[in-house]
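Hi support team,

I submitted a single chain yesterday and got back a structure, but I'm not sure I'm reading the token output correctly. Could someone confirm the output below corresponds to the sequence I sent? I've pasted both exactly as they appear in my results page.

Thanks,
R.
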Amino acid sequence: MPAALLKAMRPKQWAKNIFVYAGLFFDGKALEPLWLWRSTLAFVVFCMVSSAVYLVNDLADIEKDRIHPTKRLRPLASGALRPSVARAAAVVLLVASVGGAFAIDVAFGLRYWFAATIVTYAAMMFLYSVRLKNVVIVDVMTVAAGYVLRIFGGTVVVVVARFSPWLYVCTTLGALFIALHKRRHELLLLAENAKGHRSSLQDYSLRFMDEMTALVASSALVTYSFYTFSAPNLPENHTMMLTIPFVIYGIFRYLFLIHSRNLGGAPEDIVLGDRPLMIAFVLWALTAGIVIYGPGLF
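Hi R., thanks for writing in. Yes, this is the structure output for that exact sequence:
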């Protein structure tokens, strides 16, 4: 039962909460222990609240998950985890995450901004689990909003005065890009059973999704490019533009994996399981780190 509960909490998907560190990294504070500690506390709180959301989502979708080729193996759908245990764990995780957020606000004098972010995230994602995921277009927009809240929460705890709005827009578009491809994968995988698993899938089509992802991908690239030469805290010589090729490759590589390798069901598996994509991410992070932190180190 403990192993099944841990699996239902989806620890692999905690990697999504790395967006909490965006404010720390882009504001040039990643090398300062105090700010790094604050971001790590925020990361832990987001892991708890996101696990509570995953449990509620699986509780709401037990029957639907049982007709899915892979989701039927989830602890609740397979019967390895009792619903009563999942409900109790969700309540505990939710209380712990909200309490932890309030404790962070009190400890660092944040005027309850971080707690408000966690409560908003939890409320929005619970609403998504019971209703919004079945509303076409709104479903993927809600997922994208969750990533934006992660970034906002991270900027709150490290007191970022001016976080480039271009990065918020780029994050929204990137999250839409991933969420749309996940819906596309479900549509292909489930075929005629797609409607039974998620009612919004009946309103999507492969052509519609491909058109949306093309628009979102190009917009994300343009938005990130604007950030590299317009953000106020970047070097005036525009060296941040050196990171653009890695972003282009990352987008193209993800599209290649989706369309040529028929992946897309679990974004975290794609990113963590593809070596070229991981190398591109590491090179992007190193280059961006040198641009942001280099002037202060050398």
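A quick pointer for reading it: The chain has two domains: 1-163, 164-298. Let us know if anything else looks off.

Best,
Support desk
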